[in-house]
Amino acid sequence: MLRVEIDFKNDIRAAKKMHLPWWVLLCGIIGSALSAALFDHFGRPDLVLPVLNSIATLGFLVALKWKLRRCAWFWITMSVIAALHLPLILFIPWTTKWVPALAIAAIDSADFCLILAILSTVGKFIEGSETAERR
């Protein structure tokens, strides 16, 4: 379990140092505006914030763990995590009223840390099974 904890702490340190290029931020702003217009058109403006937060969190995690992009287990795990976000977004009653930014940041941070822990744990199990197969 110590290996997972070390990986988690290293990932948190790397995330704190990570800076997104200007073009990523510009694409995010444009994508957010288009998403808001699309959800509003279909009468579900309450889903804009949770969808964009999930996309941002998952996107940031993929960027952080980009060194694992050639590992099938990483993409399978991320796909399962993204699929698990869908029922959370669809079945939780969201509001269009003002929500404190601190509350949103706390939820996103908890989601981020949970996904990092899952990736570290799955990576440890996959790494351990590959090492056992080589023996």
Describe the protein's architecture and organization.
The protein is mainly α. It has one domain. The chain is 79% helix and 0% strand. It has five helices and no strands. α1 packs across α5. The radius of gyration is 17 Å and the shape is globular. The model is unreliable at 131-135 (pLDDT under 50).
In short:
The protein is mostly helical and 135 residues long. The protein has five helices and no strands. The two termini are 22 Å apart.
Topology:
Layout (H helix, E strand, L loop, with lengths): L1 H16 L4 H20 L6 H17 L7 H20 L9 H34 L1
Helix pairs in contact: 1-5, 3-4, 3-5, 4-5
Strand runs, count: 0
The secondary-structure element order is: HHHHH
Task: For the record, give the distance between the C-alpha atoms at the N and C termini, rounded to a whole number.
Answer: 22 Å
Instruction: Give the helix level as a range of percent.
Output: over 70%
Computed over alpha carbons, the radius of gyration is: 17 Å
Structural class: mainly alpha
Strand content range: under 5%
**Unreliable segments of 5+ consecutive residues:** 131-135
Q: Give the mean pLDDT.
A: 88
Overall 3D form = globular
